Predict the 3D structure of the following.
Amino acid sequence: MEVFYYLVFGALGAVVAALELSKTTKDRINTSPAFNSFKNNYLLVYSLMMAGDWLQGPYVYFLYSQYGFGKGEIGQLFIAGFGSSMLFGTIVGSLADKQGRKRACITYCITYILSCITKHSPQYKVLMIGRVLGGIATSLLFSAFESWLVAEHNKRGFDQQWLSLTFSKAIFLGNGLVAILSGLFGNLLVDSFSLGPVAPFDAAACFLAIGMAVILSSWTENYGDPSESKDLLSQFRGAAVAIASDEKIALLGAIQSLFEGSMYTFVFLWTPALSPNDEEIPHGFIFATFMLASMLGSSLASRLMAHSSPRVESYMQIVFIVSSISLMLPIATNFLVSPSKVKGGGISFSGSMQLLGFCTFEACVGIFWPSIMKMRSQYIPEEARSTIMNFFRIPLNIFVCIVLYNVNAFPITVMFGMCSIFLFMASILQRRLMMIADKPKTQDWTAMKDRDTEADPLNA
């Protein structure tokens, strides 16, 4: 493996270690033993769930290409996943609020395990079913677990500030350390042990099964709207009312969709961007490097959120601008550096520059996750938390589906440019959110929901 990869990984590791070791008491939050036990249980489950997800990440595109599918067909498979998340995500989110968040988390485990099993088949239709199942699972992963945590945290009467500690630790471990270990473990299975690109998916299924066992044995159930007679349509209407009645919720949803849409597009683009001439790149090691950069970001976020100033709404503007600039690098290198025509070989100079930019973007991702979680816990009403969070995912999935559907129609630099523009738009919306953060809602969500139900007694 080229020395360059080790240098980048080592530099990022040194910075993360320095950040963690240099933390003072001012950068830490004092908590109770009961909370620490609760937090550690959640972190264990979340880490196992993320291990199941991250093990698959670096090898989805690679596995499909090994089965003989081209970029267009792989794009269609990715579209199936995001389309499934868009169509079924809101439904499963509403069911999580209604039927219980613990049940939804168990459903995530079962659905994703089935998705992993389909990867053994080279048949396009079977892989398509796997992508649909994976899309449903993704919606649950990014809504049910957070909804369960927030509700359980409040039910147990823990300090609100402690919630940001759990968020930052979850991202540091689940989206950082676990992701790095998953990338290295996947690399070990595929390259060192030569078990083939399907091996990481089998390992992922094992971690998901272990996590499901922990949930079944240690979690209690909690719900959103306690109404016994509320159907799915009424829940959707209630979520729409909540978004329409509070500009802060609407802005938060738009910001999340713009950032995550760019992030998921990046997940698809980074492999062809770094190997335009089929250069041999260590997918697992590069993925681990990205996650180390994300770990660096979450470490910064934990420091920022431990203090009252600067506020999340303030510093996230800078994060979005930096992330926008970092995804402009593929465009800049395309104009400034003569593209190589040599097939195969190691990573090119432009590829090396892009890798550094991608690491910067991943650091922004590490700051984004705990920060957006904290803002969601502040602004989204508990009664329909999972439903509203999955409403947010509808525009992001539409955006990603459109990009992937036209993956062969536009050069890769155009798609990176689109992502960069959307991230800049997110910074503008974030500024607006900061300006109205302390503004009270014009109308109470619960009152509007009740009024809406009275106007339509058939749904009462």
